[in-house]
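The following block was generated as part of the benchmark described in Methods. Ligand: zinc ion.
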Amino acid sequence: MDRIWTLIMLLVVAGAGQLAAQTADQDEQGGGNMMRRIEVYSVELGQTITVDAVELSDAEWRERLTEQQYQVTRRQGTERAFTGLLLDNHGAGVYRCAACGNDLFLSTTKYDSGSGWPSFFAPVDPANVDTEIDHSLGIVRIEVRCSRCGAHLGHVFEDGPRPTGQRYCVNSASLTFTSMEVGDQGDATAGDGAHAPAKASCAPD
Ligand SMILES: [Zn+2]
């Protein structure tokens, strides 16, 4: 019980910090129609780059995305487990945001969590994703979003494999896959020993 309260308090503190950071960001923009610029990591270029944030109206997102992509990325939807097109994709390459093309995950961090959703133990770079506390469904979870366009991707849990112990549980509908040669990105491999508990799940059914 104590552990649960500690976790809840940590989440509350983390949420307050994030709110303060967001407010600071907004202050820096200083109004006007200036496009917000952000730094993200580009796998193709192998370095951090500055790009325009992608901020579209609801109507524009509807036009740009398929119905399922729209429901998941703009309406915090969750595709049904074991239905995603990229769940069993084992090719080498990069998983990008289906809404804006931002690089999100590498194939070298993808592993089979048994949850029914594509699972990764790390993002391409911490700068490429944002996290937010999600109180929906009556439980506290950490939502993962694309840092460039705010697309809902899924949730991150603390029951992932080594080396991070994190499990990014992501909807296939939020992702596109581009085949390319990708390096190790550090010491991580998604091979042997990288298996989370079989009961992992993204959402209570
Ligand atoms: Zn995006």
